[in-house]
Design brief:
Layout: E1 8-15, H1 22-32, E2 39-46, H2 53-63, E3 67-71, H3 78-88, E4 93-97, E5 121-126, H4 133-150, E6 161-165, H5 166-169, H6 181-191, E7 196-201, H7 216-235, E8 249-251
Parallel strand pairs: 1-2, 1-4, 2-3, 5-7, 7-8
Antiparallel strand pairs: 4-6, 5-6
Length: 258
């Protein structure tokens, strides 16, 4: 990996009703970024929050020159927030995680050593999921189906703790507006020949707010989006039998993350 003086990094957070957590994430990120890069920026995509998230962010931006805020006019969905973040990230490497505080943004430092030559994506995977049992079961089923049906090479597509080369993300077209964008993104990056590395990261209980995903209507919508995406990018566009699949997987031991 290049030295910090040769790295340029964009960090972004999709945020929706994260008024209690987003300021801490931004401050933690800006505290650790100078240790991994000398050219960096932090972007927060406020996806039409109905609480004080927007006001909190605007106040932060007044005092933090490396911080840029993008406000969506209404809630457009998680996928739309990610697409906005990728489209506005201007550095060579892009890191993102969620704004709800279930991941420690400071742990991004363990991803950078694995971003060596030939690696396009370093993906975290949860050492232990800190959610209620129902969420764990649904998440495990979702992840297993995604890996099986979309032939995804990483173990935890549901772990939004990722470091990606900008040139890699620019070569794929992402269209999902929902949380299905993670499956779409990993599948398309994999199909384009990108190499992946993985590293274990900690996952923490959600201390503020409630997830919008684990409701009956949201699960039903996700199931529909899941199979619609499978029909669109897998069933109708399978890997060509003779095409090179130039991906590889590097895994860092869980002990190294503690």
């Amino acid at each position: 990996m290049p030295s910090p003086q040769n790295l340029s990094v964009s960090v972004f957070f999709p945020a929706y009703n994260d008024e209690k957590t987003i300021a801490g994430l931004v401050k933690d990120t800006l505290a650790v970024l100078p240790t991994v890069a000398d050219d960096y920026e932090v972007i927060v995509v406020n996806d039409g929050s109905t609480d004080e998230t927007g006001a909190v962010l605007d106040k932060l931006a007044e005092d933090l020159p490396h911080l840029r805020i993008i406000h969506h006019n209404g809630n457009k969905g998680y996928g739309a927030a990610l697409r906005t973040g990728f489209a506005n990230a201007g550095k060579d490497l892009i890191f993102y995680t969620d704004g709800d505080g279930q991941y420690d943004a400071r742990e991004m430092t363990i991803l950078f050593p694995l971003m060596g030559d030939g690696i396009a994506v370093v993906n975290g995977y949860k050492i232990k999921r800190s959610d209620r049992r129902r969420r764990k079961v649904i998440g495990a089923v979702y992840n297993r189906l995604a890996r099986l049906m979309f032939r995804i090479p990483i173990r935890d597509v549901d772990c939004d703790f990722r470091l990606i080369r900008r040139r890699a993300i620019e070569q794929v077209e992402l269209v999902s507006a929902s949380g299905m964008i993670c499956v779409e993104m990993i599948r398309k990056l994999h199909a384009s020949g990108c190499a992946f590395a993985e590293v274990p990261v900690h996952h923490y209980p959600r201390t503020f707010g409630e997830s919008q995903f684990f409701t009956i209507s949201s699960i039903a919508r996700t199931a529909f989006d899941f199979f619609h995406l499978w029909l669109k990018i897998v069933a109708r566009r399978p890997f060509a039998p003779d095409s090179p699949r130039r991906w590889k997987l590097i895994v860092k031991s869980a002990a190294a993350a503690d």
